[in-house]
């Protein structure tokens, strides 16, 4: 932006080679020859945003073929769920625009199911997948039509015909035609998702939710999805490292939250995947502490649970560290125990096919209780596993894991008591929480709250930690301050 010396301001003379397409990415990825003559759509394309969408992809990270395979697999699952029905019609609404205050929208995030199945990025749209159970289903997209007055404010819309070209759905129409399409559709088993899209809700009174089918699909990630999730995790890890390094006694939680978000966004994340928890000292014992408005005392640790979202895929990482760069002996005792628990859970994941997430949770509770017995925090007389698990649970009120994907708590209908499978991404997040008011434990441990959380891809060769780039061991964390 600042390197073209011949550009003068106030319209006097612009260098002949400068253009509105001049951007900081052109040194990384040359813009195509057609440059500015390419029509901008309502979402990035390989032509207009080559730094986001690679050749052969229709949306960042994914090809139209992959999206089409997802739709076919989704339809096949619906047919399997209701084999007696000859025809099926599934209506998948997009997210709608939500307003913060008069005419001021919240920044838009597409509905995950809708985007997973078709990749369309605009609000107020509907995807319909329909057909006979013995045939390949057809996909019809209903999207906002071109409207110069609206596009003046909100930017270009893709419109029906270009949506077909870009996303390779079978047909597309203006969204005002969806009602006619659905009401004139022959008798079929109807599937939909509960939504705040009134149009779709009143048309589909007899429909059944398709959530189970879509979540079954989304639970197992493709290699393209893993690529995006790996990049999201890398962004998170690099940003966490920068945030840890920049912390110091009396740092404000809000400064660390801002630092983290800044580091994520300059690395390409569109937003954070969830409001981060940045909790100094005893506040780490409030599991969903998101106020982040306090100052962290010199000898306190900070617990930070945060993740970048990249191309609608989440990462979710937690680290706990002393803001002065050196663990006290009490912090060290508990941190080392937690690190060991984390390590043992990761070892179990080498045989993930024999375990469920609930099994891992029970393991965590037992390991925490045994470790805390050694520290004189849990009653040494407890010996039965059931008693110990119960005692451990008192120090970690949350689960040790959830599935991760486009949503942070991804595919929530998939039970945590099902055996783990290749292709899943799960978090591993043991924690130990000792609120200051817990008068039953030795004074030096009161007010400590710790969690270590990583994102783990389960592969044929065992667990692969997507968030490995962020140091986890006590020594490595202290090393970040040297
Ligand atoms: Mn988590």
Please summarize what this structure is.
The chain is α+β, with helices and mostly antiparallel strands and 482 residues long. The chain has helices spanning 64-81, 112-118, 148-154, 160-167, 178-183, 198-203, 211-219, 223-246, 253-266, 329-348, 357-374, 385-393, 474-479; strands at 87-93, 99-101, 104-105, 126-132, 138-143, 171-174, 189-192, 208-209, 271-272, 277-280, 301-306, 308-310, 313-314, 317-322, 425-428, 431-434, 448-451, 454-459, 462-465.
Description:
- The protein contains 13 helices and 19 strands.
- It has helices spanning 64-81, 112-118, 148-154, 160-167, 178-183, 198-203, 211-219, 223-246, 253-266, 329-348, 357-374, 385-393, 474-479, and strands at residues 87-93, 99-101, 104-105, 126-132, 138-143, 171-174, 189-192, 208-209, 271-272, 277-280, 301-306, 308-310, 313-314, 317-322, 425-428, 431-434, 448-451, 454-459, 462-465.
- It has a 6-stranded mixed sheet with strand order 6-5-4-1-7-8. The protein has a 3-stranded antiparallel sheet with strand order 9-12-13. A 3-stranded antiparallel sheet has the order 10-11-14.
- The two termini are 35 Å apart.
- The model is unreliable at 1-31 (pLDDT under 50).
- The structure holds manganese (II) ion.
- The site of manganese (II) ion (MN) has 5 residues, from loops.
